[in-house]
């Protein structure tokens, strides 16, 4: 059986930077509150030309270039803000990348989308169905925010991130060693955009906070057990970037020092399905990791959905999307 190995990473961000000071000028909030309660300093907002598919295409292009390849046998776009209700965004992104004819589909798992898509691509490679895959997480949730809702407006930002995977062996840097995915539809109303004209993104922040910490730390333990690793052997935790307090709580419950948790949300906020691949790209840009380091990914999001992945750090170079 083949092992799926990450060989390339890429990210893409909209040009418009929205700082906490910008938000405090238009709603009842302060830079001090946002920094203290979330850790976020600024985020990016997509304009009319920066659709989910545009950002996804750029991130995908950069991940392929980072791997030194120009094609992939499968394209998965994790998004809950597709360009259209139908068709899916992935076929268009694949065509933009010159990959017409390749299998391409979307995965809708909100903030857990990238973990879902990466695990799905790994299954496809492990089964021998394909020898390579491009996995992209892309979301433009700021278009769906209620501009008067200060609890969601301060958190979310737009962006895309991508990873290229190919068949390889477990000893190679970038190898995926274990994954776990979960969902509980009883929590569907915790994070939702109801159908109907003028519907906005709604989130029950406090309840989501509590469930996110329990679910992410639980799935980290599952992949640690599957990979045969201990928490002490983990070099880096790259968790969904929703709130600095959540990152610290997850690290603490999982027994991983908070200093090992990658932090990227200060500059981009919560970019939903893009958050983990953007944080990975940022870690690579900053030279935070060494190939072969033991890395855990984890996310929690609407559905509710959650999961985790245990992998080693790939040997790659990336373009800084900032
Ligand atoms: O990506 C999918 C997963 N999503 C998440 O993981 C998000 C999880 N939730 C959170 O990150 C946090 O719950 C929030 C950041 C959304 C809210 O932070 P919190 O610490 O849970 O605040 P809270 O809702 O308990 O509100 C505390 C106080 C309230 O005032 P009172 O009732 O104590 O007077 C709020 O009205 O803070 C007030 N508040 C604000 N004040 C200034 C809420 N939002 C703001 C704001 N600026 N933006």
Lay out the secondary structure.
Blueprint: E1 3-12, E2 16-19, H1 20-26, H2 31-38, E3 42-45, H3 52-67, E4 74-78, H4 90-96, E5 103-107, H5 113-126, E6 132-139, H6 150-153, E7 159-168, E8 176-183, E9 191-192, E10 202-203, H7 205-227, E11 236-239, H8 244-254, H9 265-268, H10 275-285, E12 294-301, E13 305-312
Helix pairs in contact: 3-4, 7-8
The structure holds oxa(dethia)-CoA.
Ligand set: oxa(dethia)-CoA
Query: What is the H-and-E element order?
Result: EEHHEHEHEHEHEEEEHEHHHEE
CATH fold name of the largest domain, please?
Peroxisomal Thiolase, Chain A, domain 1
Task: Look at the structure and name the CATH superfamily of the largest domain.
Answer: Thiolase/Chalcone synthase
In terms of structural class, how would the helical and strand content be classed?
A: alpha/beta
Give the C-alpha Rg: 18 Å
The CATH class assignment of the largest domain is: Alpha Beta
Number of helices: 10
Query: Looking at the structure, what is the overall shape?
Result: globular
The portion of residues assigned to helices is: 25-40%
**β-strand amount:** 15-25%
For the termini, the CA-CA separation is: 38 Å
Widest beta sheet: strand line-up: 1-7-6-4-5
CATH architecture of the largest domain: 3-Layer(aba) Sandwich
The biggest sheet, with number of strands, parallel, antiparallel or mixed sense and barrel status, is: 5 strands, mixed
* Unreliable stretches: none
Overall structural domain count: 2
Structure summary, number of beta strands: 13
Quote the average pLDDT.
Answer: 97
